[in-house]
Description:
By secondary structure, this protein is α/β, with parallel strands linked by helices. The chain is built from 13 helices and 7 strands. Strands 1-2-3-5-4 form a 5-stranded mixed sheet, with helices on both faces. Strands 6-7 form a two-stranded antiparallel sheet. A hairpin with a 7-residue loop joins strand 6 and strand 7. Helix 2 packs parallel to helix 4, helix 4 packs antiparallel against helix 5 and helix 10 crosses helix 11. It is globular. It starts with a helix and ends in a 6-residue tail after the last helix.
Amino acid sequence: xxxxxxxxxxxxxxxxAESIRNxxxxxxxxxxxxxxxxxxxxxxxxFVRTLQSDLEALRNAFERTIPPDAPTATASVIRIFASTxxxxxxxxxxxxxTSGLWMPAxxxxxxxxxxxxDRGAQYDAMRRVVFHEAFHQYIHYALDRxxxxxxxxxxxxxxxxxxxxxPGRPVNVAESEPHVARILEAIRGKRMDxxxxxxxxxxxxxxxxxxxRSDHYALAWGLVYFLQKGAPATRSIYAGLPAEYxxxxxxxxxxxxxxxxxxxxxxxxxxxxxMAAFWTTASSRRAAExxxxxR
Length: 295
């Protein structure tokens, strides 16, 4: 990075360290673009070291999939809590149901600890939450704080949540079995309404009804997975839709306006049919599984 971004990155690292000064049990570690602060027990350090390496690889995948407007001048801060009560005291009351949260006002991605005695399962769940929220954090800076529509922001965060990271190999993204099950159920029940999904506000997306909220996450994930992997695999005309959407976000500065402009030109019936055919065709899904993210 140039001298100015490098200085800003260092300043943001110092600010993160300062935020836990004199707090018993808290510690911090840094990579090139991330700062992790936590009060997890020392036995979690191995998990955090792996997470740091994975985040840098994932960040490269973010940047190649959605190039930033300019080099990032702020370190991405991740705060991982050791107790549920600490997490719930830190986040707004209306968001205490979350497992993790990107908090732009604080400039932090915060993570709730997962209960249970299976340490491996706990760490896997936390890793998926961090991957999900890290996309929200990235897109905030990459698009210079422009706000994208809920379908795009949550769809891509859910997409990257399933990232498979292996040293020396391209980052791939696996299917989400729970989301696939909901999508197939929605197709059978004629509930896969991409037009409605595209028009949902954030408040509408985060419906108070947990079942509807889960449907929204699954359908947004399914749309993004199809656009990012299914469409290229099946040579669909919709493979270019994400790039077209981002071009309009950058031009208008308004994610919802960009959605209206792009989806107005989309044949929603055709999109629905292609998506339904993709999710119900095993060979198409296998072809999509082999599509890696840009290198």
